Amino acid sequence: MCKRKKIEDWLACRYYGLRRRLGKEAVTEARKARIRAVYPEELPERKARELDGRRLFQALLCLVGFLLLSGAAALSAGSPAVEELVRPEGAGSQRLYRLEAEGEWGTVELEVPVAGREPTPEEKEARFRLAEEELRSQVLGENRSLEEVWRPLDLRAETSAPGILAWWTPQDPELIGPDGTIQAEEIPEEGIATALELSLYWEDGSGQGEERRILVPIRLVSGEWTEAEALAREVERQLQEVDAQAQGEDTLTLPQEIQGKPVVFRMAESKPLPWALGLLGVLAAAALFFREEQQLKEGEERRNRQLLLDYGRLVGNLSVLMGAGLPVRRAWERILRENREKEGRRSLYEEMALTAHAMEQGVSEEQAYGDFGRRCGLPPYLRLGSLLETNCRSGAKGLAALLEREAADAFQERLQLARRQGEEVSSRLLFPMILLFGLVLALLMIPAVLTF
Is 355 helix (H, G, I), strand (E, B) or coil? Predict the structure, then answer.
């Protein structure tokens, strides 16, 4: 705890030094007044240093914690290595895995399709046309059109038409490989005309089926590959070969080497954003820094509300005791002693105790009562302090009547304060009531809608 206090004092010292270099006060007068109101027994400068050190320390801890969390997230962003891919069910189905191939050359992202193992025939003849339209668009891959083909074609033949089995067959295997890669070594300027054959097969529940074959003409043109594209092309080719050799197995065992170099595959998942965690840490630290000041303002508001509620009782007790013949100072001390024992620590009695202590230390009653009103800072207490100051200068004549009138006014002000607090409570309850109304409305409407 002692070490933490030293850190907090050091942070507060640096913070105040920065404010002074920027031409600002270390602790503004408004903040001193707020601290004096909430902590009347504390020195404002010392309490401000304690509060600022504490909030800076909390903000620093929060920021460091989020930065450490951000670093840990960055280090653990990769997913575990995988050696097998689970096959989907159904001969016409196919599951696409997004993988990362990691080796000595770096990391390459790619998509690996894994075909289904067991046949599941179910479809109608009307889906042939839908499958043909989808596959003509899909086969382009990253090419702009079938008249300008130089990137790999997408021969996976995936269609949303259920029950339709589809596959592509290159007309010239020397030009286009079974995985859609362009194998022609040299392509003339005018290009090479060739074609793909699209086979669509439908099998009904009785084992009978129908097959349609469609010839799709294409033109190969020359183009340039990037290093990453060439590497991904080779990895995908080898994975397609492994997949073709293991069609009857439940899993697909991934190769451990690509081009004679070790490779590790990982699931390409969405990765956390370490920078987002760092930004969140900065925002949380800023929130902690300003939370202390907000709590101080809320404490001042609670203290003022409490003083307004206690004002009528104070003035009424002073009026009764002075009417019984007690001087102001004796009445003050009696009210403080009796009520503090009953109600404990309240802002009014703390201020009264400071006033009584000041008079015991030799401060004149006139000045002590005036300081009491100014410390409370609220209009009713400023009036009371002025009345008591006037009483000390000119005597007690007419003071009892003035206090009675002040007590009546204080009663009316307390009624108004209670009314305002009731309105505030009603406004706070409005939003939960709206939520409950929406919930009840949903409970009534949803079953009615679902029955139609």
Answer: helix
For residues 30 and 47, what is the distance between their CA atoms, to the nearest angstrom? 14
Measured distance CA(314)–CA(355) in Å, rounded: 14
- Indicate yes or no: pTM above 0.70: no
Helix, strand, coil percentages in the chain from 3-state DSSP, rounded to 5: 55, 15, 30
Distance CA 243, CA 253 (A): 8
Give dist(CA 116, CA 73) in Å, integer. 36
Q: How far apart are the first and last CA of the chain?
A: 67
Other CB atoms within 10 Å distance of the CB of residue 229 = 14
Residue of 210, 154, 220 lying closest to 184 (CA atoms): 220
Residue 222: which region, alpha, beta or left (left: phi > 0; alpha: psi -120 to 50)? Answer: beta
Q: How many CB atoms lie within 10 A of CB 75?
A: 9
d(CA 271, CA 74): 9
Give the tokens for residue 327. 């001087």
Q: How far apart are CA 64 and CA 69, in angstroms?
A: 9
DSSP 403-443: HHHHHHHHHHHHHHHHHHHHHHHHHHHHHHHHHHHHHHHHH
Q: Which residues of 356-384 are buried (b: 16+ CB within 10 A; e: fewer)?
A: bebbeeeeebeebbbbbbebbeeebbebb
Helices and strands, number each (H, E), in the chain: 11, 9
Nearest-Å Rg of the Cα atoms of the chain is 42
Question: Which residues does the chain have with pLDDT short of 50?
Answer: 90-91, 119-121, 123, 205-206
Hey, is 229 helix, strand or coil? Answer: helix
pLDDT score for 444? 81
Burial of 14 (0-12, 13-18, 19+ CB in 10 A): exposed
State how far the Cα of 35 lies from the Cα of 42, in Å rounded to an integer: 8
**Edge-to-edge strand ranges of the sheet holding 257-258:** 106-115, 94-103, 261-267, 257-258
Q: How far, in Å, CA of 247 to CA of 389, rounded?
A: 101
Q: What pLDDT was estimated at residue 208?
A: 61
Cβ neighbours of residue 305 closer than 8 Å, sequence gap 6 or more: 417, 421
Q: In this predicted model, what pLDDT tens digit does every residue of 368-425 receive, in sequence order?
A: 888 888 888 888 888 888 888 887 777 656 676 777 777 777 777 767 766 776 766 6
